[in-house]
Amino acid sequence: MQVLEQIRDLRIARQAYAPADVGFVPTMGYLHAGHLHLVEQARRDNAHVIVSIFVNPTQFAPHEDLATYPRNMERDLHLLAEAGVDLVFAPPVSAIYPDDYNTYVEVGGVTEMLEGAARPTFFRGVATVVCKLFNIVQPTRAYFGQKDYQQTIVVRQMTRDLNLPVEVVVCPTVRERDGLAMSSRNSYLSVTERRAAPVLYQALIAARRHYQQGARDAELLREVMRNMLATEPLAKPEYVSVADPQTLQELAQVGDQGAVLSLAVRIGPARLIDNMLLEPRPTETEHRLKGDPHDE
Ligand code: AMP
After folding, report:
1. Nearest ligand 1 atom, CA 30
2. Any idea where the domains of the chain sit in the sequence?
3. Does the C-beta of 169 come closer than 6 Å to ligand 1?
4. DSSP-derived pairing of the beta strands 235-243 and 2-4
5. Active site residue ranges
6. Is the predicted pLDDT of residue 66 greater than 80, yes or no?
7. Euclidean distance between CA atoms 148 and 59, whole angstroms
8. What is the pLDDT of residues 240-269, one digit of tens each?
9. Are 34 and 145 within 8 A, CB to CB?
C-alpha cells in the first residue's frame, strides 16, 4: 500500500491505474468498521481503491472540535493495508489549502436545514473539500455512509450541478451491537455517556415502529422520537426531523415519497447524529387487496 502526501505524487500514482476503475473513500481518519465497510464495497466495485485521510479544517466552525478531533495515523494505515487498499492520500493542510486559497463550493437548498442550520459553514467546507478531492483523485466511484445522510444528498447535488464525472455510492450505516452508529466522535464519550448513547437509535426505532403500524402524521413521529430521547437524562436533543428523503423539507404527512428520520443530540462533550429511512410501502389495505383472490 502506497501512502502519499503530495498532490503531484497522487496524480502520478493514479494515472498508473488508468483505464481501470478507481474507487475512492474520503475520510477524516480514526477509522472504524463503518469506514472499512465503505472500503470493502469500493473493493468489490473497482480494480483499485484510494482512501484519503484528511481532517478538513474548513468544515469546522471556530468553536468546534478541530483541535481535539481524534487522530491515529499509524493505526489507520494498518487497518487500510489489511483491508487491501492500494493507496492512501494523507495530505497536509497546506497542500489542500495553501496560504492564498480563496475558492469555496456553495450548494444551495439541501444545505439549509438540519446540519446546515446547526452548523452554518459546515457544508461549504464539505462540498469544497469533496470537490477538490474528486478533482485530485479523479475516481470512477466515490463511497459515502448513510450515517451522514444530508451529506450524501449535498454531495450528489454538487456532483450533478458541477457535472463531476464521479458515481456517488451510498452505503448503509454500520452500528455497534447496541445500535449506536459508529463514529470517530464516539471516542469523546465517558463510560456513562456511552451507555446513554444508544437512545438515538432507540428513538429512530420507536418512530419507525409507529410508521410500520400505520402512523403517517410526521409531528406524531417527531413526538415519539422526542419522548424516547426524554427518557435519557444525559441526552440533550438539538433537533428531531421527519423530512422528505430528497429535498429534506420537513413533512406534515409521510406519503408516497417515504421519509428520512434524523436527529442530532448532545451527550456530554459529543454531538451525535443518526438517521433512518422510512421506505414507502403499500398501505395495509392495498396489501390485502393485492393478495385477494377475487382481485383479478
Ligand atoms: P468521517 O471520517 O467521519 O468524515 O467519515 C468518512 C465517511 O465514512 C463518510 O462518508 C461517513 O458517512 C462514513 N461513515 C462514518 N460513520 C459511518 C458508519 N457508522 N457507517 C457507515 N459509514 C460511516
Report:
1. 2
2. 2-171, 184-295
3. no
4. unpaired
5. 35
6. yes
7. 14
8. 999 999 999 999 999 999 999 999 999 999
9. yes
Q: For a substitution probing ligand 1, which of 35, 56, 66, 80 has the most ligand atoms within 8 Å of its CB?
A: 35
Residue 169's pLDDT band (boundaries 50, 70, 90)? very high
- Using CA atoms, how far apart are residues 72 and 84, in angstroms rounded to an integer? 19
Which CATH architecture best describes the domain 184-295? 2-Layer Sandwich (3.30)
Look at residue 294 and tell me whether its pLDDT is greater than 60. Answer: no
Ligand 1 mean position to 151 CA, how many Å? 10
38 lines ligand 1 (CB under 6 A): yes
d(CA 67, CA 227) in angstroms, rounded, equals: 34
- Quick one: the chain helix, strand, coil %, rounded to 5? 40, 20, 40
122 lines ligand 1 (CB under 6 A): no
Amino acid, res. 185: R
* Model pLDDT, residue 293: 44
- What distance in angstroms lies between residue 36's CA and the mean position of ligand 1's atoms? 9
Count of CB atoms situated within 10 Å of the CB of 231: 12
Residue 104 CA, ligand 1 centroid: distance in Å? 23
The pLDDT confidence band at residue 27, using thresholds 50, 70 and 90, is very high
Q: What is the pLDDT of residue 74?
A: 98
Q: What is the pLDDT of residue 291?
A: 47
Q: What pLDDT is attached to residue 296?
A: 34
| Average pLDDT score over residue span 51-57 | 98
Answer CATH for 2-171 from 3.40.50.620, 3.40.50.11540, 1.10.150.240, 1.10.4160.10 = 3.40.50.620
What phi and psi values does residue 74 have, to the nearest 5 degrees? -60, -45
Weakest mean pLDDT among 22-31, 173-182, 275-284: 275-284
- Measured between alpha carbons, how far is 263 from 293 in angstroms, rounded to an integer? 43
Residue 134 near residue 22 (C-beta atoms within 8 A): no
